[in-house]
Design brief:
The protein is α/β, with parallel strands linked by helices and 474 residues long. The chain contains 16 helices and 17 strands. α7 packs across α8. The longest helix is centred in the last third of the chain and has 16 residues.
Length: 474
């Protein structure tokens, strides 16, 4: 049984995700590949999100690999392309079984199979064990284990119970990064030509932000420090990365754990071999933990600040305050870390005053980088439910999944702020923040001139030609 795992192209795939020069490999696919390969399955990976997607390239890969099963992992913005890939695969060989997984499929399992007919099976949630059990069944080895699985039967969509989360993360083999073309994945915040690899120390997020679906569950599960260090040492020896992205939603969720990881990295000398970047919240850091991170080789930390208005943060269940963010950013800068931050414009209950307050706050902080996203009602989030019912001042404009992008989307506006006006606020935020020489030079490390032109054209297109029809006042 041959399996081909595919990462679909991103929307505007010719330019990559707008606002970011480098792409990171899909760790979910890498883990699934290692899990099934460890059990004797012939598996390969094709990442169509890197560079410009060409149908002819995918056709060539499918004809060369001759897979019995294709497994596709897709976010919401990729789900239409994922269906195209499944259709294309079946046009080459109608016997190919198409399996879809990823964030969108997990949030809307039944709806995804109803909407996209090319998918035969859908894997919900963590995919390692569910996908392997499906492969075993399709290979003729035993009964169908339908936990975590949705499938078609006599025109109906069937499913089993949800599969329990994997408790012992150390039992999962290290990600199969050797199946990727590693030269495609470059470090962030740098012109370094080395390789960047993601590493996860946990799975899950215990917070309940209104705009996040929590695809890995609301309970945090930890790997052992020994297992993490073994992976880091193997990655350095085998792949020679210059940068490692700690991909946890909230790396500093447990202070004692982070300190133990940092101490082990320093003891093994890993901090002399590679630099790290990570993401976390502003209410779970202090000077001590940031110093440990700095000494362990962390170069940059990204904070999810989202808004500069405490009431908006509260109404969107973020659980932090302006004071938390100001304190965290200042502490990180004081210990010598680069600081990046994410902001969301157009959150529920926003108005022009709170949006301007967020932009002012972002520009007042001693940040090195900032990203300004517009709110996206991803399936499975509280925001999506609110938008469906026009709650919180939100108005849904479209359910075209290919427009569910944080930078270049166009499916949500506020009752008192049109989508076109939101895009102008976003443009203003970027121009204002990156108009200083320091910030402009920093931006050039992350994005290419062509990306900037595409983003500006997107704004111009919607302002001059109208873009999506908007009903609210500017």
């Amino acid at each position: 049984m041959k399996v081909l795992l595919i990462q679909p192209p991103r929307y505007f795939s010719k330019f990559g995700e707008i606002g970011q020069k480098q792409l990171s490999m899909n760790t979910g696919i890498a883990y699934i590949a290692s899990y099934i390969r460890h059990r004797g399955i012939d598996v390969s990976i094709y990442d169509a999100s890197v560079g410009e997607f060409k149908t002819s390239d995918l056709q060539k890969v499918i004809m060369e690999k001759k897979p019995d099963i294709i497994g596709i992992s897709a976010s919401t913005i990729q789900i239409v392309d994922a269906n195209y890939i499944a259709d294309l695969s079946k046009s080459i060989d109608n016997n190919i079984v198409a399996v879809i997984g990823g964030a969108h499929a997990s949030a809307l399992p039944e709806g995804t199979l109803k909407e996209f007919k090319a998918f035969d099976y859908l894997v919900e949630g963590e995919g390692e064990e569910t996908f392997y059990k499906l492969i075993s069944y399709l290979s003729g080895n035993g009964e169908l284990d339908d936990r975590g699985l949705y499938y078609r039967e006599n025109g109906d969509i069937k499913s089993g119970k949800s599969r329990p989360l994997i408790e012992h993360l150390d039992d999962i083999p290290f990600p199969a990064y050797d199946l990727f073309l590693l030269d495609n994945y470059k470090p962030q915040y740098s012109h370094d030509r080395g390789v960047a690899l993601p590493v996860f120390t946990t799975r899950g997020c215990s917070y309940d932000c209104s705009f996040c679906s929590g695809p890995m569950g609301r309970r945090v599960r930890f790997r052992t420090v020994k297992n993490i260090i073994e992976e880091l040492k193997m990655d350095i020896e085998r792949y020679h990365p210059s940068q490692i992205l700690i991909g946890d939603d909230t790396f500093t969720i447990r202070k004692s754990f982070v300190i133990e990881v940092c101490e082990a990295i320093i003891k093994e000398g890993i901090n002399k071999e590679v630099e790290f970047i990570c993401e976390t919240r502003t209410d779970v850091v202090d000077r001590e933990i940031l110093m440990y991170m700095k000494n362990a080789g962390v170069r940059s930390v990204t904070f999810g600040i989202e808004s500069g208005d405490d009431e908006i943060l509260k109404k969107n269940s973020k659980g932090i305050t302006r004071k938390d963010s100001l304190n965290a950013v200042n502490l990180a800068r004081e210990v010598g870390l680069e600081v990046d931050a994410n902001f969301i414009l157009g959150l529920s209950y926003e108005d022009k005053h709170t949006i301007k307050k967020t932009i002012d706050f972002a520009c007042s902080l001693p940040l090195d980088y900032a990203s300004f996203f517009t709110l996206v009602p991803y399936p499975g989030t509280e925001v999506a439910k609110m938008a469906e019912h026009n709650e919180g001042g939100l108005r849904l404009l479209s359910k075209d999944w290919s427009k569910y992008g944080k930078q270049t989307g166009g499916i949500l506006e506020l009752e008192n702020i049109s989508y076109k006006r939101l895009k102008l606020y976003q443009l203003y935020a970027y121009i204002r923040f990156y108009s200083t020489p320091k910030h402009f030079l920093n931006a050039m490390k992350r994005i290419t001139p062509i990306t900037i032109l595409v983003f500006l054209w997107h704004i111009f297109k919607h302002q001059i030609f109208g873009g999506l029809k908007s009903h609210s006042a500017d």
